[in-house]
Amino acid sequence: SPRDSATMRTARSRTSGENLTGFFIVAPFSQEVEPPLNPGRFNQQLCRWLLLSIDRLPSNDLTMTQELIANMLGVRRSGVTEAALKLQAAGLIRYSHGHIAVLDRAGLEQRVCECYAVVKREFERLLPDILKI
Q1: DSSP label of 6
Q2: How far apart are CA 68 and CA 85, in angstroms?
């Protein structure tokens, strides 16, 4: 029928704006899978956040202060300092004066829970073109 045909055309003509709207609704929730309850969980959250950040960049380098990371993750700056030092001692990152270089992506991936894969899949589903820089 003509009504069904119009419905199908509308369904097929989803715009990237609609995907973007869905992204802003779903993405924040998908990132809050588990709040950090202890230092081990925070280390996982920091690793996940670093991975999600470099997933959107053309390199493995981030320019970001510990204060900004603390604000974004909802923790004290001293917690970020402690976790970053542990990751640096393990050879996973190099951190110096607001610059973070991810040295061992596979090592970070081993330290995150399955929530990283869930969040990454959701970003890829909602914004496939943005993730392919």
Answers
A1: H
A2: 16
Average pLDDT estimate for 36-48: 74
- Among 107, 125, 102, which Cα is nearest to 20's? 125
Rounded CA-CA distance 45/66 in Å is: 14
Rounded CA-CA distance 80/86 in Å is 10
Is the pLDDT confidence value at 28 over 70?
no
105, amino acid identity: R
| Alpha carbon distance 131, 123 (integer Å) | 8
d(CA 96, CA 26): 33
pLDDT class of 117 with cuts at 50, 70, 90: confident
CB 103 within 8 A of CB 95: no
List Cβ neighbours of 16 (8 Å cut-off, separation of 6 or more): 129
Average pLDDT over residues 28-37: 45
Residue 14 pLDDT grade (very low, low, confident, very high; cuts 50, 70, 90): very low
Name the nearest CA neighbour of 98 among 74, 68, 77: 68
